[in-house]
């Protein structure tokens, strides 16, 4: 429909486009003229204090529900067993704890957002004000104007006059962060000295990872590489991976004359040496052995360790030698540990002391 088809009485009247609510009409000389702002329409809350009170109660109710949901989040976290499952249609069987935590935390955050939006749409000033752009570096008079506008906005938000909204909003915003504080419990108990100890101890037999049988010295040939675990550690255990992340062991048999490090020779048995399998760079499992040079190589970042010289680092980003496990032979003739590692196993611990 063209402008000629619109009745003249329905066309907007020409007004000063600088006045609030004025609408200018584009002409041929300036087809992209500023249309200005539409006339301001008052909301029911602006003219009826009872409607404003109803909106205030709605906002306060939303903030109160947020507080109750946060309390429910904390109560759910404390009281609901983590292994309890419930059926929720149409999702199916899910963790009751996860469902309760997600529902309560979602409700707490949603109600804060909904309350803030409803407050802004019904009670805060909705008058649109056009302002000219200014330079990035504001002159003093502009700074004073901004401060005055802020004070005016704070006044028009009615936060000082609507005490019920202010009180419940502060309560909701104060309680919500407690959800994150409570979640810190999931970090588990303090590690104590657990990082300094592994599953190895005096008398623990060295068990072959492949055959699940204790190792005898005759089972380890010169130049061979064998992986071992502590006696009593089984793959069916729930914490098997965590235990082996520190206790994984590699067994290599060298000619005693080829061992350069004095302590390494003392801690070995007939040339059989036991070293941690965990690289001291980022914790990758070492699995590559070079028989002629007695070097082991980490496949992740090519850190190389000399097993004939205390497993010192000869190449790559690793900063420390591999920890050695002191071994001997039991009365039954099986290889056994004579204690735990004397230094922490793996990476990122040395600098923590």
From TrEMBL:
Name the InterPro entries for this protein: QcrA_N (IPR045603), Rieske_2Fe-2S (IPR017941), Rieske_2Fe-2S_sf (IPR036922), Rieske_Fe-S_prot (IPR014349)
The residues that cross the membrane are 58-80, 86-117, 164-184
- Report the locations given in the UniProt record: Cell membrane
Q: What GO CC terms are in its UniProt record?
A: plasma membrane
Chief location category: membrane
Stretches for region Disordered: 1-43
* Domain Rieske per the UniProt entry, residue ranges: 241-336
User: Has keyword Transmembrane?
Assistant: yes
Q: How does it assemble?
A: The cytochrome bc1 complex is composed of a cytochrome b (QcrB), the Rieske iron-sulfur protein (QcrA) and a diheme cytochrome c (QcrC) subunit.
Tell me the function of this protein. Iron-sulfur subunit of the cytochrome bc1 complex, an essential component of the respiratory electron transport chain required for ATP synthesis. The bc1 complex catalyzes the oxidation of menaquinol and the reduction of cytochrome c in the respiratory chain. The bc1 complex operates through a Q-cycle mechanism that couples electron transfer to generation of the proton gradient that drives ATP synthesis.
Q: What is the protein name stated in its UniProt record?
A: Cytochrome bc1 complex Rieske iron-sulfur subunit
């Amino acid at each position: 429909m063209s402008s000629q088809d619109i009745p003249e009485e329905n066309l907007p009247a020409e007004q000063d486009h600088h006045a609030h609510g004025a609408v200018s009409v584009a002409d041929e000389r300036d087809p992209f003229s500023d249309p200005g702002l539409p006339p301001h329409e008052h909301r029911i809350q602006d003219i009826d204090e009872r409607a404003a009170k109803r909106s205030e109660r709605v906002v306060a109710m939303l903030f109160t529900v947020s507080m109750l949901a946060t309390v429910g989040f904390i109560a759910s976290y404390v009281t609901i067993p983590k292994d309890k499952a419930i059926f929720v249609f149409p999702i199916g069987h899910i963790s009751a704890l996860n469902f309760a935590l997600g529902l309560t935390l979602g409700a707490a955050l949603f109600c804060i957002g909904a309350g803030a939006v409803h407050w802004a749409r019904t009670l805060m000033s909705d008058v649109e004000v056009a302002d000219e752009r200014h330079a990035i570096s504001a002159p003093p008079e502009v700074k004073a104007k901004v401060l005055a506008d802020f004070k005016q906005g704070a006044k028009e938000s009615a936060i000082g006059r609507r005490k019920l909204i202010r009180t419940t909003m502060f309560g909701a915003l104060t309680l919500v962060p407690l959800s994150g504080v409570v979640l810190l419990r999931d970090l588990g108990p303090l590690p104590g000295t657990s990082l300094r100890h592994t599953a190895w101890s005096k008398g623990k037999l060295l068990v072959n990872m492949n055959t699940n049988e204790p190792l005898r010295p005759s089972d380890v040939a010169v130049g061979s590489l064998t992986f071992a675990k502590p006696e009593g550690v089984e793959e069916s255990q729930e914490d098997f991976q965590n235990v082996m992340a520190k206790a994984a062991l590699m067994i290599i048999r060298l000619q005693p004359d080829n061992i350069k490090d004095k302590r390494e020779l003392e801690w070995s048995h007939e040339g059989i040496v036991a070293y941690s399998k965990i690289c001291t760079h980022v914790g990758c499992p070492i699995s590559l052995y070079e028989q002629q040079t007695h070097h082991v190589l980490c496949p992740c970042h090519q850190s190389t360790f000399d097993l004939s010289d205390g497993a010192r680092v000869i190449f790559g980003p690793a900063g420390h030698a591999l920890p050695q496990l002191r071994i001997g032979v039991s009365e039954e003739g099986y290889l056994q540990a004579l204690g735990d590692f004397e230094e922490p196993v793996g990476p990122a611990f040395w600098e923590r002391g």
